[in-house]
Amino acid sequence: MMSQYLLDKFQAFDLRKHALFALLAKSGQAMLAVFVAAILAIWLIGPKTGAGVFDLAHYLVPAEARALILGTDSAEILTADESANQLKLLGSGARDVPSIANQASLIPSHLIDHSAIDRSILRTEAERKAVTNHLAKKFQLSPDDIAHYVAQAITVGKEVNLDPTLILAVMATESSFNPRAESRAGAQGLMQVRTHVHQEKFEPYGGPLAAFIPEANIRVGALILKACIAKAGSLEAGLKNYLGAPNAASGLNTYTDKVFSEREELRSIVRRLSSSV
Q1: Least C-beta-crowded within 10 Å: which of 48, 91, 188, 237?
Q2: pTM tops 0.85
Q3: Is the pLDDT of residue 259 over 50?
């Protein structure tokens, strides 16, 4: 009887032990689920990260597996890093990026608001350096990266005949100078070009993956901006068209106000520099 009593006690203890382990396992699973959900939420809504579901897929699922499942024609899920690597293999680099001047010349110059044009700004090294230092400090980015974007804005400004500080202001407002930025609406890169709408414009640069390449994105974005200004008849209306909201409001804290404010900051820096000489 004593042995039966001990056996019953042992079985009861064993049952309680299993119940405790099961409870701990369920609690652990619940905590893991909450942790994963929190990480996903932070990833998807983190400010200025450019992160998104496709970038997350890059880390969770190897590229080879995605290609096997979705096929080789799956450019839409490639990340900025993969895009850059693929474009390098295609031979598209900063030195041989085609000019957008020919396409821009098809837009009649007389339709462009004169306030969107300035051929005299950022012509000196001192002006370019002052603007670069300001933007690097404001957006907490590498001066070398910003210097490259400033140089590109000047070059592209000449190609499309637009004020380079306007191009820089659009980049600042659209992406905060994040070449990896991607919106939920599919706008990509520095100037947040909607690649699915303007896919053909990226063909000279190797295809839609070039949206993540600054030299290509700035050119296509500037071309679209010029077309929007010409179509709308004024700079402000053109910016609203570029945003994709021609009926958007004007005034403080609106999209156009932010672009104009960013542009005026840059132009003020140049004016102060000129007045001190």
Answers
A1: 91
A2: no
A3: yes
